[in-house]
Each structure stands twice: as C-alpha cells, then as structure tokens.
Hints:
By secondary structure, the chain is mainly alpha-helical.
Amino acid sequence: MAAQIFLFFVFEDFFHYWAHRGLHYGPFYKHIHKLHHEWSAPFGLAAEYAHPIEVLILGTGTIGGPLLWCWYSGDLHLVTTITWMTLRLFQAVEAHSGYDFPWSTHNWLPGWSGSEHHDYHHMAFTNNFSTSFRWWDHIFGTNKKYIAYKERKALEAKALKAKKAM
Length: 166
C-alpha cells in the first residue's frame, strides 16, 4: 500500500505541476485560477477554494494515479484509495496552512514542499507550482525566484541578528 500511495503522490504531483503551471497562463488564470489566489496569505481551507473547472482539472491528477493503477494491475483496495485521498487532502491543507511547525512534513521528509514553499507561490503568484515535492520546480527551473527570496531573507535575518548583537 505504501508503494502505491507513493506512486500516486508522484503521479499527482507531476500532473498538478503542469496543470497548475498552465492555470497561470493569461486567460486560464484570469477566468479560472485567480479565484484560488484571492488568498495571498493562505490558510488550510483555502486549499479547496477554487473554481469548479480548476477542481475538475486538478482533481484529474488526484484520481488519475489510482485509476491507472487499477487499469494496469486490476487490483486496487478500497482502503488504499481512502488512505490516498485522506493523505492528499491533508497535504493540500498543510501546504495552505501558512504554518511551519517542527513536525511539518517537509522537516522530516526531504524534498517535500510544505507551507513555506507554497506560501511563496501565493505571495508572488509565480514559481513553486509543485504541490507535494519540490523537485519538479527544481528540474523545470520554476524555483529560482523562490531561492533568491530565501537567500535574501537569510541575509536580512543575519544582518538583524548582527545589529542586535551590537
């Protein structure tokens, strides 16, 4: 079951990356995805706040992995499906929570996106299109502004700490 769910996450994240990136294109953003971006500082339930067409598009990635698995293997247990859907929903809420707790998934699972990664996306409306894993943004170069932002914030924090030490 764990291997299946991992594959579902990889499939969904790849699908989501490209669909989400496409939803940031001109008319798709203006008429569909802009609704989701009404929250520049998201909170958990903002994960599900979207235009119905966006729900259909991005939902295809969520159910696509299990459907393809079932088609090719002929075997998909209901408990696996329910577990996958629950974990996917928790992931979406965590990414939109606006909180970075010590127990947040990205703190113990390398490459996981988390709220800090997705908060930047909502703040800047560009970059960081991945939903679960950071690697798609790295591979396709859509995390460069985010990395520069993090470096700038780290320098600012270091300067502030040095100033307080004086």
